[in-house]
Amino acid sequence: MDHNHGMEEMAPPSPTNNAMPMMHMAFFWSKNAEILFSGWPGRRTGMYVLALIFIFVLCVIVEWLSHCKWIKESCSNLSAGLIQTAIYGLRMGLVHMVMLAVMSFNVGVFIVAVCGHTFGFFVFGSRVFKKTDEFGSISDLPSVSC
């Protein structure tokens, strides 16, 4: 008589058969990580570097979207609202993609994400490349609307 009642079919895969990849729950430093997609970047150093560059560029794009002036003064409220909504949706999608990459717990990904946001803010949000307004002033920090 079978006392398992078919439970052996529902048993989770064992760690020895490599059916499920290892999911890190603490920071680790390795080029052997899965970032965003199953099997990506794999075990090749070049693909890991490409993944880091991709995350960096995503962060810079997020900062660019956050600090650029997209709406002309002559735009109607409807047009301005649609443009704002589209850019906000794109920005939130990219921000959440970066968040998911950081959730790989890979130290390299975390460092690159912070550096990408910092560099993007330096170029698009800081005083370095901005002109002063008609009163000669610039806000110390940009508005945060996340």
UniProtKB/TrEMBL annotation:
InterPro entries: Cop_transporter. The keyword Manganese does not apply. This is Copper transport protein. The lineage of its organism: Eukaryota, Viridiplantae, Streptophyta, Embryophyta, Tracheophyta. GO terms for molecular function: copper ion transmembrane transporter activity. It is found in: Membrane. Belongs to the copper transporter (Ctr) (TC 1.A.56) family. SLC31A subfamily. It comes from the Eukaryota. One of its GO terms (cellular component) is membrane. It is a multi-pass membrane protein. Keywords: Copper, Copper transport, Ion transport, Membrane, Transmembrane, Transmembrane helix, Transport. The chain crosses the membrane at residues 46-66, 78-99, 105-124.
